[in-house]
Specification:
alpha+beta
């Protein structure tokens, strides 16, 4: 787990969870297209 306020660093990571006032307001898990194809 990496916690950062730097959006440029966060953009490099496979998942971003954004919080506001202690609540999750955004949860984005990027999936590698090759893994999606392999799972089919």
């Amino acid at each position: 787990m990496l916690i950062t306020h730097d959006r440029d660093i966060a953009a490099l990571l496979p998942r971003q969870v954004r919080m506001r006032d202690g609540r999750i307001v955004h949860d984005d898990a990027r999936v590698d297209d090759a893994r999606v194809e392999a799972a089919r």
